[in-house]
Amino acid sequence: MVSLALLLGGPSQERGISLNSARSVADHLMGTDVRLKEIIYFDRHLRAYSISRNLLYCNTPSDFDFKLTLDGSALATEQLVALLQGVDLVFPAIHGAFGEDGQLQALLESAKVPFIGTGASACQVAFDKFRATDTMRRAGVGSVPGILVTAEQSATERGQALLGAFPEAAKVVIKPAQGGSSIDVHVLADRSAGVDIIEGLVSRYGRVVIQPWITGIEMTTIVMQGPSGPVALIPLQIELRNRLSDNEIFDYRRKYLASNDSHYYCPPAQDVGVIKEIQHVSEQAFSLLGLRDFARIDSWLRPDGEILVSDINPISGMEQNSFLFISAAQVGMSHADILRLVVHTAARRVGIEEADRAPAEAGAPATRQSVAVLFGGETAERQVSVLSGTNVWLKLLGSRRYLPLPYLLDPDGSVWQLSYSAALRHSVEEIVESCRDAQLLDDVRSKLASSILQRLGLSGDDLGSPVSPPVRLTMEEFLKQHDLVFIALHGGEGEDGTLQEVLDSHGVRYNGSDVAASRLCMDKYETGKVIAELASEGIYTARRICVPLFDALSRDSSELWQEIAAACGTSRVVVKPVDDGCSAGVVPLGRPEDLAEYLRLIDGGATRLQGGSFSLLTAGQIIELPTKRQTRLLFEEYIETDDIRVDDISRDASSAASLLWGRERDTGWVEVTVGVLGKKGSMTAMNPSVTIASSGVLSLEEKFMGGTGVNITPPPAPPLGRVRPEAVHMAKERIARVANALGMAGYGRIDAFMHRETGKVIVIEANSLPGLTPATVFYHQGLAEDPPLPPRDILEMIVDLADSPRT
Fold first, then answer.
1. CB of 145 within 8 A of CB of 136?
2. pTM score, two decimals?
3. Pick from 398, 406, 420: which is nearest to 485 by CA?
4. Closest Cα partner for 97 from 30, 179, 196?
């Protein structure tokens, strides 16, 4: 058995993605012939901490950064080295600066610690966009040309370089030479407008690259080290959708948020010969730059057929549905298979005796109760449903009691029975498209896969997820095949009682609340009426007014605004659909013009809104709107909360991260979200999580994009925070009372404002099928219980409750 130390964190803006990658490595190597012995976290100042596995289920490093002062002091260099020397291999999962630029690798090499991935000197070249592409061009490998500007030059020289760069190109792209592939990247049609941008980038990064705007098809390719050289997996083709301008790129939001703004094709929609040439160029880049074990190569396929390498990623992202896992699934490899291949490739390279490579699931019992995991649908939250459903399915694959089977609810109402590779896609649209084109895709895939497996030295015994064609079923056929369904749908018919009623009529058991409670929780106005009856118990609902959409559209917006503000008692309000999910169409409004614009978009059937048009949203903020026509809108008072943020940037390297609380607003109220578990009538509340919105209300990114939203569990007491433990206890009792008053069952989530001194709560809404994405607060809260409830245990408990009689 190979023992590992897993490294994560770091100083870059991609440290949240590092946390996601580390969680995947830990989850999918569990139960294999690899043992995770140490988990080492580096903060922004590169102090190293030995942390517990539980922290990997946080959404961002800021969730726990400030707690490390209580959990233990930073490791001294000799302590860190001793821990690392006590394992067979180190697995770096740190993206961006420090993790991929050679600094971490140099540290490991100086300590004589064997590690997975590329060495220090090769990382220094590969991570630097100018040095990497210049090295490839000089060796005859096609790459995107670039001009380097540095801090050593004068501002005049840098400005002249920009103004004179690539005059034949309609636009230029400027980016840090040493930075992530999607952060601080700017597209300029007017070069003179970029002088100040260049100066800002140089001041932060020191080295900046100017490149011509490339037209063509964007590709990314995972390359593995095979027994006889590098082997490229099947490339992915990236298509940007819902573009607002021609200057948009494959940025951080498009790469990591669950949406169809970026659509992936794997295999690419190209001839096999073209795909093989992309693989060949990627392998050339891997060899030329001295990369090891695995890496990701980004490139462009030009209209004339030329292939230009654009970016090198020495440590590929390893999120749940990352490029690494999507590509591996296309040749029959599960998450565990590809990660074990990476580990064993590095182990052989450094002379560690190879362990038995039997499939990870080999020890699972033959008789497990099957449970159909259903996700997808057509609501605005359908992509979050894909993340929830695939995460439930993947986590339950390791269960010794339940056998999960993935199914997608097609927006047309049919149901697709999915294989591993079909389920592991980025969006509902990708899954549906791949299912409908399965035969055509499989013809291309199979021509590529056999060669890849042969060159990697793999056989059928090494594959834990053989590719099989999807099967299309009617809902009736689906229900006849299963007597237990895990509903992982969000919003719409999955959460409003419609599907529950169908399942009841067929005698099919399911997770979560029954028909009546589901309908009640989906209707935010009716939910508020029930909660209003609990005021004597310290449980309140926000002041609100429900307005029919037809009436709102027929009124003067200024006059309607005055009426809404008077009813809510505040100068700012929050508008939300009465009967949709917890994030679609939820927008803070601060003036009549905001109301008018919101109504215009809703009436026009818009699918999303841009924050720049609203006074209380940031310019870059995007909010998804409901996919079905609304008949009623709910307006609620905007409740001011304490301002809270984790300060891990501004302090010097000798200071620990801290929680800054109440510097601008000290209201006594904090926003919380609380998971509830149990049978109907006896639901209990877990430890609340304090949720921190960067602007107005929680954005879709902050709720569901891993590595973005800050959720602190449990609410911190002094000296770290300001919440009285007695208030948390009282709030938990009140939240449980809410769940039982609403008739909830199995599990759910209550969103509320909590008074940090009294424990009184103002309930926002109840979610009968909350998100179960990889870093959901549900898992944080379970791990904060006594004794802790690991994620798989919580999911098994939810299924157990679904399997028990409903009372």
1. no
2. 0.93
3. 406
4. 179
